[in-house]
Sequence to fold (162 residues):
Amino acid sequence: MITPFFYETYISKIPDENYSGQILRQVNALKEFFISKDAVWESLPYEEGKWSPKEVLGHLLDTERIMTFRALCFSRGEKNSLPGFDQDPYVISGKFNSVSTELLLRDFEAQRNALLTLINTLDESVLDQVGNANGNPITPRALFWIISGHFIHHFEILKERY
Fold:
């Protein structure tokens, strides 16, 4: 699997289990976690300068959409390099604290369902086609696994620090 070294943090967190099951289990775990907290909690960062839980959720959504788009492009044979993105301005522009948690969670579930239906339409042969994102070679397969590992990374922080 071709992936830039800085994604190893996410790849190393992935458990050995069925991908589709993992993606859906993560949706349920996130929903249960948010439901277990009070309404004030979701808009408060754990310290100054950090994101609130709703902003973390918005960041997950933005990142997964970008990674899914990249995977779609590379699976279709895109030869142009795709740009990187700066997560902090995305979170600021997203104004996620003003969006209801219910809507963010529904959006997350819809994004995950769209991810799975995309994967199910792809031929196995395109999963290892190499594309370039932010100046780095990467494959659709790697991007799909990064999505899962990125979620685990942020969910661990939510559980430990919030």
User: Anything to note?
Assistant: The CA atoms of residues 53 and 142 lie 26 Å apart.
